[in-house]
Amino acid sequence: MSDPGTPGPSKETLVLTDPKFLDHDPGPGHVESPARLDAIMGELGRAPIAGVRLETPRAATAAEIEAVHSAAYRARLARLDGQYAELDPDTAVSPGSWEAASLAAGAAVGAVEAVMNGRAANAFALVRPPGHHARPAKAMGFCLINNAAVAAAAARRAGARRVLILDWDVHHGNGTQEIFAARDDVLYMSAHQYPFYPGTGASEEIGVGAGKGATVNCPLPAGQDDADYGAVFHDLFLPVGRAFDPDLIIVSAGYDAHLRDPLAEMRVTERGFGAMTSLIAELAQEVCGGKLVLLLEGGYDLGALALSVRASLEALTGRREDFPLGAGTDPALAVAATRDALRAAGRPVPKT
Ligand SMILES: [Zn+2]
Q1: What whole-number distance in Å separates Cα of residue 49 and Cα of residue 28?
Q2: What's the gap in Å between 297 CA and the centre of ligand 1?
Q3: What spacing in Å lies between the alpha carbon of 215 and ligand 1's midpoint?
Q4: Would you say 100 and 23 are in contact if contact means Cβ atoms under 8 Å apart?
Q5: Distance (Å, whole) CA 336 – CA 343
Q6: What is the CA(55)–ligand 1 centre distance, in A?
């Protein structure tokens, strides 16, 4: 029996989000629109999920952002506060963007802190702008601050010796890969449509120097469905993740591999996203006491996005979702290429 005066560890799933994320407006007609979060919050309001606690985040500090971005780049973003500006062909800021981006990165840190100190069982930061294309000194692909990288750096400071970042957004997280390419304490794993934007993420990209083997890319042809993603998890991500033995798992949770997404050509359903979340939550239970943080990245069909986020949240709160059997185009070739690249570098994937 625990001391009744001392609250035990929370079993709740923490959701960090803020209406100020809607103030980031990349312009009329842009797919990364405030309507994305509106759709998600509308869906969660329509039928709330038991075991989810909603909180608003604090903004990330300069030091938290500068752990993965240059001071000059952070200062440039801050100077654009209150203005409209174009930072790259896909990426623009509006007067509310700096505050939204600071809060998004802060939500990523807050999610990590709550999970690391046991205040939440796991967490999902429902944020925008997204982060995984943001480079150390450059905005890119709708992203200003690399939220997953800021979160991983915060986790290291909070005592995690090894952090696993799994990126299931349909685009390769080039920014996250670049930030941690030479490090062996942060493992970056991504499954993504390939060849495709942003052009990186080949099987042969496995990290550099001390980080060799701590970058794992599974570039997939278009058309992969739920069962295909299930095979990638079972044959690659789970054995690599288990061997890495992380103290925290962070997911760059994009939902643009969905069947109905307008930007990509994958065929994942909301059930598939629920199954991915169940599997990674099980891995987290096995290796790190369930410490798992999801961060919203892409996902551009509003209805598909809302239902897929719901499926992930239901999995985080304990509903088990399995991958359906049967495969679409079969990812075996892509998985084999990645395993070959890791083996050639002396980092073979352990047997399942
Ligand atoms: Zn994406």
Answers
A1: 32
A2: 7
A3: 18
A4: yes
A5: 10
A6: 25
Q: Rounded to the nearest whole angstrom, what is the distance from the C-alpha of residue 252 to the centroid of ligand 1?
A: 10
- Catalytic annotation, pick one of 132, 133, 171, 258: 133
One digit per residue, pLDDT tens: the chain, 352 residues?
334 444 444 579 999 999 999 999 999 999 999 999 999 999 999 999 999 999 999 999 999 999 999 999 999 999 999 999 999 999 999 999 999 999 999 999 999 999 999 999 999 999 999 999 999 999 999 999 999 999 999 999 999 999 999 999 999 999 999 999 999 999 999 999 999 999 999 999 999 999 999 999 999 999 999 999 999 999 999 999 999 999 999 999 999 999 999 999 999 999 999 999 999 999 999 999 999 999 999 999 999 999 999 999 999 999 888 877 655 567 888 899 999 999 999 999 988 6
Instruction: Write b or e for each residue in 129-141: b if 16 or more Cβ atoms lie within 10 A of its Cβ, otherwise e.
Output: bbbbbbbeebbbb
Confirm whether 171 is a catalytic residue.
no
Cβ pair 316, 122 in contact under 8 A: yes
Distance 256 CA to ligand 1 centre (A): 6
Regarding pTM above 0.85, the answer is yes
User: Ligand 1: distance of its center to the CA of 187 in Å?
Assistant: 20
